[in-house]
Amino acid sequence: MPKSKKILLIEDDQDLAELYDEVLSAKYEVEIAHNGKEGLELATKKPDLILLDILLPSMNGFELLKAFKKDPQIKNIPVIVLTNLGSKHVDDDKKLALLLGAEDYLVKTYHQPQEILEKISVYLPT
């Protein structure tokens, strides 16, 4: 069965990127960006969904979300924030991400890759 849906994973941690790629590739076509600038470029290829880390080199996830929502070609692509930014400010960070247009906000340490796959299927029904 061909993989019809494309996911852009914007993640600077190489090990995590590989782990998520392995899990997601079973069901989706995955493209990985390792920094904000690369993520912005790859988003113009119009993936079906974007998984976005917040702490990134060159442009952080909040800056990227703002840029995505300003771009008419990208603004309707669902974005799930996937971050380890689980600090005492997590509620503020989550509010900001949702305010900027993210569909969901997941803290990596609280969600197994399989749970993330289930979340994705809510936004990308097969």
Automatic annotation (TrEMBL):
Key word Phosphoprotein present: yes
Domain Response regulatory: from-to ranges: 6-123
Record keyword Phosphoprotein present: yes
One BP term from GO: phosphorelay signal transduction system
InterPro entries hit by this protein: Bact_response_regulator, CheY-like_superfamily, Sig_transdc_resp-reg_receiver
Residues annotated as signal peptide: none
Keyword terms of this UniProt record: Phosphoprotein
Protein name: Response regulatory domain-containing protein
